[in-house]
Amino acid sequence: MTGPVGGRLDGRSAARLLLAAAIVDLVLVAFLARLLLPVLPISARGNEVILAFLGVFIALLALYWVLSELVLGGRSFGRSILQLDMRTNDGGNLPATRKAARFVGKLTFLGLTGLNPNGAARYDRKTGASWFSPMAPKPIKPFKDWALQVRSGNHAGKPPVRLEQIPGFRKTGNIKIGRDPAWADLPLVGDGDVSGQHCVLMLRDGSLYIMDYGGAGKPGARNGTFLDNRRLKPGKAEKVGLAQSFRLGNVVIRIDR
After folding, report:
1. How much is the pLDDT for 43?
2. Do β-strands 147-150 and 251-256 pair in parallel, antiparallel, or remain unpaired?
3. In degrees to the nearest 10, what's the CA dihedral of 185, 190, 196, 199?
């Protein structure tokens, strides 16, 4: 396959588009089954016609499923129309072994777990399969190559730090930011505007989220965490979206995409 088309879809958007693609595929298979249905005698009863159609439809659907999931690497008529492209989280080609594991997981539940329109299917999550589309904004770089740069405060002017270089991101996809070096993955020691345990950046379902470190008995950062000049509620993760920076009190951190 060529490079990814567009950007990575979040779980909910991917699930809804895949459901729409599945409906298109079912209509196509039903049409083909009708064309291939053997000519029945005029005396055939309604239930005989229905059973004959169902037999051809199920056989054709099984063949179509194997071809699209294994031979064509996740491509189907419906997915091609909607320009859905199955890849790894960072946009690379999904290895054949993971495609096979995904197919087995899907086969186990006859694909029914993929009909949930509110989130990614379990077999996609377990095998790290992600869906790309022109309808999603395309990141300029893979997430691991994004960087954070402090633009104000005591640490302003230091070189950007790539997410891949931050231990917390490599291990969990989370980046803790604060003044306390024993807690923070990105410590801002000596900057009075920043709390010891100020905020957390999280990579979830292909999107970056930020959370003021509070809630569950914690009061949150003393000077607040701001996104688009709006103070975040402690303990509640919010999607960063297209924001180019966020603010810890008066300390601005730029997101280099």
Report:
1. 54
2. antiparallel
3. -60
CA 191 to chain CA mean position, Å: 35
3-state secondary structure string across 143-179: HHHCEEEECCCCCCCCCCEEHHHCHHHHHHCEEEEEC
| CATH code: domain of residue 250 | 2.60.200.20
Q: Alpha-carbon distance 59 to 38, whole Å?
A: 14
CA atoms within 13 Å, Cβ hemisphere of 236: 8
Environment class of residue 139 by beta-carbon count within 10 Å: exposed (0-12), middle (13-18) or buried (19+)?
Answer: middle
The answer to whether residue 1 sits within a structural domain is no
Residue 2 placed within a domain: no
Could you tell me the two tokens for 132?
């790309």
Reading the block at residue 41, the tokens are 């005698």
Block mean pLDDT (10 aa), the chain, length 257: 62 87 92 76 62 85 87 87 84 80 78 70 82 76 85 89 89 92 92 91 86 75 91 91 87 90
Strands ordered across the beta sheet of 186-187 = 186-187, 174-178, 199-204, 207-212, 238-239
- Same-domain pairing of 91 and 66: yes
Exposure letters 211-232 (e unless 16+ CB within 10 A, then b): bbbbeeeeebbebbbbbeeeeb
What pTM was estimated for this model as a whole?
0.52
pLDDT the model gives residue 97 = 86
